[in-house]
């Protein structure tokens, strides 16, 4: 039997000093990837999908995303910024986009390639793939890396449903490097491409990409870290770029439903929020949605505008993205024929197969795994089934799994511990009422 050893990278990081051992994170994690042991949270690498839910709910700010800093820009001769579509929703409506993009140049970038522009290309490529491939339904969007990792970990049977098209971030990075290298005659390694991200999952997808061998992105900055610098450098300066400008179609990708709107088609479904995505994927797994052509899945509520690394309220950002769409319109500058020609040459397609990363495997040996599963079921029956999380595991089943794996004890459950203490107290009481044989008295009152 071949055993695959995975090396995991996660941008979601725990600050042990700030962690107070509360159970907010274990209750909010969609893949049950967090435990609290010895008063501190612990992230299980084989289950984490870097969705950022724990960052969002931690009251002590003990979870954070390990992103790049501005100092990394110094390592490259030419620096290119890739602002995500959700980035546009962070600024007030009266702030001109030209001012925002011009400010990005002032804080250290030489050029800006708008990811929404690449999203317009990808929209055409996705539409073409849906049209040419009708054997699998529904197809699932590949744009959200947290959803892709969720499928790898929890729904491996649905990997075949993932549409094998690169995300706009990767296409933007690839197109930017090609254009800069051609125009200025510089080497690819001298060009630094930095994605301005709304979520930690994008950071992970650069360090450990899915479906491609190596990411074209060289670094990831959070929207939160860039936002303040942009605000300080806003001005009326004109913005000029060797690249084209995005239309409302591409910018619309920043909110839930924007991807489907850009692709077109009536038989599509849009779902946002990681727990909602799980519910829909369970339906797909049961073959209940085979009449749907395409599902746009976004891990964050509201889409990327609800990412853990954004600064603006997602509902406010949603309105701003919608109004930008209305203002800029849907007349894209992208040549459809050129995109289709590139599509046929596999320009937008994945380079590698997506492999499952099962997290629920109890043992690599099937016989031992069966024994452990039987033990797990027996242990679970003995637990109260309240799923309170006081034991440091998200629910009773997770605790039973941890017990079977030797990572926890039955008495970690407060209710089992209470019963044990009662039993011990009763035994102590019985013992306290007993005397050694030499001190026991007969019925007549005399010692034996």
Q: What this model shows, in words?
A:
This protein has helices at 24-28, 53-57, 97-106, 115-132, 145-154, 168-184, 200-207, 223-232, 248-251, 258-263, 274-285, 314-328, 336-344, 366-382, 396-404, 414-432; strands at 12-14, 34-37, 40-43, 63-65, 78-83, 111-112, 139-140, 191-197, 219-222, 268-272, 294-298. It has 448 residues and is α/β, with parallel strands linked by helices. It has 3 domains: 12-63, Alpha-Beta Plaits (2-Layer Sandwich), CATH 3.30.70.20; 70-344, Rossmann fold (3-Layer(aba) Sandwich); 366-432, 3-methyladenine DNA Glycosylase II, Chain A, domain 3, CATH 1.10.15.40. The strands form 4 sheets. It has a 4-stranded parallel beta sheet, sandwiched between helices. It has a 3-stranded parallel beta sheet with strand order 7-11-10, covered by helices on one side. A two-stranded antiparallel ribbon has the order 1-4. Strand 5 (78-83), helix 3 (97-106) and strand 6 form a beta-alpha-beta unit. Helix 5 crosses helix 11 (274-285). The N and C termini lie far apart (70 Å).
Outline of the structure:
The chain is built from 16 helices and 11 strands.
Sheet with most strands: strand arrangement: 6-5-8-9
Regarding quaternary structure, what we see is single chain
User: If you average the pLDDT, what whole number results?
Assistant: 92
Residues in helices, as a percent range: 25-40%
């Amino acid at each position: 039997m071949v055993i695959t050893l995975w090396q995991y990278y996660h941008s979601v990081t725990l600050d042990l000093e700030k962690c107070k051992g509360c159970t907010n994170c274990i209750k909010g994690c969609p893949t049950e990837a967090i435990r609290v042991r010895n008063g501190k949270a612990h992230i299980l690498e084989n289950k984490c999908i870097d969705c950022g839910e724990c960052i969002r709910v931690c009251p002590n700010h003990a979870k954070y995303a390990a992103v790049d800093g501005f100092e990394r820009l110094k390592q490259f001769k030419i620096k290119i910024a890739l602002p995500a579509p959700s980035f546009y929703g962070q600024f007030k409506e009266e702030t001109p986009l030209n001012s925002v993009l011009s400010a990005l140049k002032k804080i250290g970038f030489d050029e800006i390639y708008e990811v929404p522009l690449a999203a317009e290309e990808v929209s055409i490529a996705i539409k073409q793939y849906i049209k040419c491939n009708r054997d699998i339904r529904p197809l699932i969007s590949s744009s959200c890396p947290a959803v892709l990792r969720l499928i790898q970990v929890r729904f491996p049977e649905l990997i075949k449903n993932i549409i094998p098209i690169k995300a706009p971030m990767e296409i933007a990075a690839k197109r930017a490097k090609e254009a800069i290298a051609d125009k200025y005659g510089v080497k690819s390694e001298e060009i630094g491409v930095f994605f301005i991200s709304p979520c930690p999952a994008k950071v992970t997808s650069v360090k450990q990409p899915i479906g491609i061998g190596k990411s074209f992105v060289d670094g990831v900055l959070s929207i939160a870290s860039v936002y303040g610098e942009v605000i300080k450098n806003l001005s009326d300066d004109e913005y000029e770029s060797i690249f084209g400008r995005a239309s409302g179609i591409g910018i619309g990708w920043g909110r839930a439903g924007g991807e489907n709107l850009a692709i077109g088609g009536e038989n599509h479904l849009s779902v946002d929020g990681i727990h909602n995505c799980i519910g829909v994927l369970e339906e797909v797994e049961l073959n209940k949605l085979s009449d749907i052509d395409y599902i746009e899945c976004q891990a964050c509520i509201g889409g990327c505008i609800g990412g853990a690394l954004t600064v603006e309220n997602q509902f406010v950002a949603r309105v701003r993205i919608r109004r930008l769409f209305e203002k800029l319109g849907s007349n894209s500058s992208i040549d459809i024929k050129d995109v289709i020609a590139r599509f046929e040459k596999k320009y937008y397609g994945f380079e590698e197969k997506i492999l499952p990363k099962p997290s629920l495997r109890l043992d690599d040996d099937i016989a031992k795994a069966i024994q452990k599963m039987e033990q797990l079921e027996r242990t679970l029956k003995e637990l109260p089934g309240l799923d309170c999380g006081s034991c440091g595991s998200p629910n009773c089943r997770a605790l039973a799994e941890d017990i079977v794996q030797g990572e926890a004890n039955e008495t970690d459950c407060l209710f089992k511990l209470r019963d044990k203490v009662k039993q011990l107290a009763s035994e102590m009481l019985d013992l306290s009422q007993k005397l050694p044989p030499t001190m026991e008295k007969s019925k007549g009152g005399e010692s034996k």
